[in-house]
Amino acid sequence: MLNWIGIAAINMAIAVALGAFGAHGLENIVSAQQLEWWHTATLYLFIHALGLLVVGLLIRLKYTTQATAWLLQIGIIIFAGSLYAMTLGAPRWFGAITPIGGVLMIAGWLWLAISTFRLENSMD
Fold it and tell me: Which residues form the signal peptide (predicted)?
């Protein structure tokens, strides 16, 4: 089993580093639109890294499965990664994959809901 708590902590460290880079290193280099993409990517990375931390704990407590964590992590990589890439010069059409990451993150949260409802029903 993967250590999802450790992976979440790495995501948080990356979010802090990329947030600082966006605030101090990109300000005078990229357009306002590109900076907005960077901030959006960093916000979603932070929020979902924190969520992944909680999911890691829930996996250890057997309240959910690793599927939840995988959906969130792959969603984070695709969603935030595509926005970071576009900010750094990837073609704008690259943004067409961004919603795929968003859908995977939504699926991760829904899978968490489903798995916890199933657990609750099995305890009744």
Answer: none
What is the rounded distance in angstroms from the CA atom of residue 8 to the CA atom of residue 15? 10
Q: Average pLDDT of each block of 10 consecutive residues along the chain (124 residues)?
A: 95 97 91 95 98 97 95 98 96 94 98 89 70
Its pTM stands at: 0.92
Residue 9 burial (10 A CB sphere; 0-12, 13-18, 19+): middle
Please give the C-alpha separations between residue 39 and each of 9, 15, 33, 102, in angstroms, as whole numbers: 19, 10, 10, 16
> ∠17-18-19 over CA atoms, to 5°?
90
Q: H-helix or E-strand containing 108?
A: helix 98-123
C-alpha to C-alpha distances, 27 to 22, 70, 83, 122, nearest whole angstrom: 7, 33, 16, 53
Phi-psi region of 93 (alpha: psi -120 to 50; beta: other; left: phi over 0): alpha
B/e letters for 57-84, b = 16+ CB within 10 Å, e = fewer, are ebbeeeebeeebbbbbbbbbebbbbbbb
